[in-house]
Design goal:
Strand order of the largest sheet of chain A: 1-2
Structural class of chain B: mainly alpha
Number of helices of chain B: 12
CATH architecture of one domain in chain B: Orthogonal Bundle
Distance between the termini of chain A: 24 Å
Largest interface: A-B, 106 and 105 residues
CATH class of one domain in chain B: Mainly Alpha
Radius of gyration of chain B: 24 Å
Radius of gyration of chain A: 24 Å
Helix content of chain B: over 70%
Oligomer: heterodimer
CATH topology of one domain in chain B: MetI-like fold
Order of helices and strands of chain A: HEEHHHHHHHHHHH
CATH architecture of chain A: Orthogonal Bundle
Number of strands of chain A: 2
CATH class of chain A: Mainly Alpha
Chain lengths: 296, 286
Amino acid sequence: MTMAATREGKRGRTARLAPYALVLPGWLWLALFFVAPIASVISMSLMTGGLAAGYTFTFEIGNYARAVELYWEQILRSLLYGGLATLLCVAIGYPVAYWIAFKGGAYKSTYLLLVLLPFFVSFVLRTISWGFILSDNGVVLGTLKSLGLLPGDFGVLNSATAVVFGLAYNFLPFMVLPIYAVLERMDHGVVEAAHDLYAGRVQAFVRVVLPMSLPGVFAGVIMVFIPTSADYVNATVLGGADNTMIGKVIQTQYLVNNAYPLAAAITFILMAALLIGIFSYAKALGTEQVMEVQAR
Amino acid sequence: MTTATETGPGAPDAGASATGSVRRPRGARRRPDWGKYFTWTVLCWLFAPIAFMVVFSFNDIAGRHNVTWEGFTLRWYSDAFAYPDLNVALLNTVTIAVLTMLIAGFLGTLLGLALGRYRFLGQSATNLVMFSAISAPEVVLGASLLSMFLTMNLAVGYWTILIAHVMFSVSFVAITVRARVLTMDPSVEEAARDLGATPLTTFRLVTLPLLVPAITSGGLIAFALSVDDFIITSFVSGSTQTFPLWIWGSTRVGIPPQVNVMGTLIFGLGVLLAVANTVLARRRSR
């Protein structure tokens, strides 16, 4: 800090202003199209009015009461499905990241590429493909049924399980990448040291590797939990009418019903629920550190 | 098991894998590599819908109900552009992605440079805003943008999609570039300055070339995010269609095999680019 300051001091005012000139365009873009919209959704959530008459700011807290009263079920379901999908991602993603980082050898980057390749296909297309694969008379269930291995009325779609697995599927790389980044940079000598100190495989993992890789897991949890609990594509394609998530409610209220103030209130509730959790989480870790992990 | 044999002379991971196989001295006791089986099982799971998409792009169906296998055909490849509105959607997706890559690439590079190189007022605020923009749920970003455009009475369409895409991808570019700036050896630039190069010349001939890989990968991330985005786009698109939006819209009437064809071609192109990139990176690191 001080060193940088003195170095800049020598180069004078242009150098001191340089960082501001560099960040200004990006700042403007983020201020206009990220910060201002968030402010606008908050103000809209406190408005009353209709599409024809226009909206006026009346500090209408009632929008929030209505949002909770009507949609508490979808809100809780979204957090639950998001949480389950995140756990599933840890359970699947950690062993994969571990194996690639420690046993991948010269093919580490190839394996990592293989994990990422499916995501070159559009998210919507992937999810719809799952819908086709798992459909009642599709390639898997239809075949098994015609072989008499499954009863005719057996189905996988339109269930919570299908939604949670779909969510975990679509967001797995966000778990694998940060865990891999931490494990890959880990000094493998520490594992050796643990072995030298007579730690067994399990002990070396639980007491050395796992604690050191927790920042990666934390980052992965954030990166998976937020998009999964706010997603509605998986719930719509794989979950049917009984598994609606809050994202779908927001989308419908905005784009179909045009009930903007109510929709804005639901949006704010979702945002607040997620961000409060995340920021206390990030604060405990330090945002720099979390972003550092993401960057790799 | 694999580490013992596959480390080529110049392979970048050679050192890591040599120390990584801690248990090699006792390697005589062969145990099944469960991690490997597990990883391959997960890979099969990851590729299942891709395989479905590719295989069913050759499906000889009569209508638009592409769910059960009816026989092999190449018909859909020769008739890939049968739906004019799908072509328009695809064109929109590509042009928006290219523009997003350029604009977000430029803004993100400047941000990344400033964040990695300098200490300035508002730095932690910038980090915080970028972190929030990356981690905010898409549905919130889409709803917020739409709220603002509605309040401003701004018509949504092509340009609002572009604005949104640059907004959510610029931070990814900035982080990628910042990471490179932070790990860059400052002595190279000092050497240039010692040899009499002006700051601008130093930047053009030394700093920028060193940053190119990071800028490229940041730009590619922006491109990929833009092509793939569905949720935010659905809020700010109005009547403008993109590839994911068109697919979503056609689920009710049935998704024509042309979508599988285009998905397959895009996937193929992605694979090609990724492989080329890996080969180049490997050659560069030798």
